[in-house]
């Protein structure tokens, strides 16, 4: 099938590459010329396991094209995906200006029937808004051309995006037109074998499903972080509690890992956007408000431990930081807890020597050349001469370091672990002071 994807961000690029891989004829449109030219040379704007070879191969074989020409994009696909960003506006609501711009562009150029598919995370009511913008634009053109608007949210995770897209757990389709369902069935047929993963519903329910899924996961995390704070105060070990409750199949083991707060481009933004949506219709979303507040406080947990240990004034102190990305297997630092940590340490006068396996360029881009941030080439180099080690991301190669050399490199053998990577008993036996999340240990 001929497919057009507007927006070469995370969702757009991965979705386009995966559709091309199964044989669809895909063109990606973006206004960023630089991005488009780079992609043609094989330079991929994001780090995502497995994505570069997938994009390159499909580009070389002609099933995946990149262009800035919106008209070319509209002419190409019967399916027109909208996968542009929906950043938060000043009050935290999702800003739809990029979505409506694409809707207008499609309506300006279309000559035949199009199926417009909202792939971006968009508030309930967006499909109506897309439909209104397109109807208005077609009216000014005096063009009587039919179109459909579908909500088909994406559920991929950064770091596992290609696999998530290739083997989706569910394909949510919100539409009011049975013919469109057939077209989407054909489009997704290669991903929908063995058993039917397509869940059909009305458009508004599909739009809300996306937010509800992310908010539910964020709720699980904030709930566990709250219990971890209680565990600490009550002298319990959250890791034991996690295993104890996870074994109940109704609760399950996933997304109940306590830590130094959730980050990324989705949970913080989506929780906030659903809060704003609720408030706008006069409903007070108490659980969601608490989820957000608990997370904001949780990001201050490691800085609080550090000040508890070293005092409020951190002038003259240097901290080794392992992990800048908001989670492993990505270079994304959006809303990462490492940022709150560094910014709080800098305010108290401290220096940071940081290492991350993938996010070093991103940190350089965000913070530039600061006198109080040194980006180090290895995790060992980050430790040299530092007063203590702080861990914000659970990258695999942080799990079993050579603890003797860690101890020798640090001025004081202290570890502040925001991801509960080590066994407190063993690490304390090795001579470390160990602060973790909800484990009592040295607090
Ligand atoms: C999230 C959802 O998991 C995807 O299903 C969704 O499609 C995506 O948002 C989106 O809306 O685009 P992502 O933001 O890539 O995916 O990252 P997650 O793996 O969900 O992790 C989010 C944050 O939660 C990370 O900071 C992670 O460290 C934290 N987390 C996760 C915990 O603190 N504890 C856990 O048990 C799990």
Automatic annotation (TrEMBL):
It catalyses: UDP-alpha-D-glucose + 2 NAD(+) + H2O = UDP-alpha-D-glucuronate + 2 NADH + 3 H(+). Substrate binds at residues 155-158, 210, 255-259, 263, 327. Pathway: Nucleotide-sugar biosynthesis; UDP-alpha-D-glucuronate biosynthesis; UDP-alpha-D-glucuronate from UDP-alpha-D-glucose: step 1/1. Its EC number is 1.1.1.22. GO terms for molecular function: NAD binding; UDP-glucose 6-dehydrogenase activity. Keywords: NAD, Oxidoreductase. Belongs to the UDP-glucose/GDP-mannose dehydrogenase family. This is UDP-glucose 6-dehydrogenase. The lineage of its organism: Bacteria, Pseudomonadati, Pseudomonadota, Gammaproteobacteria, Enterobacterales.
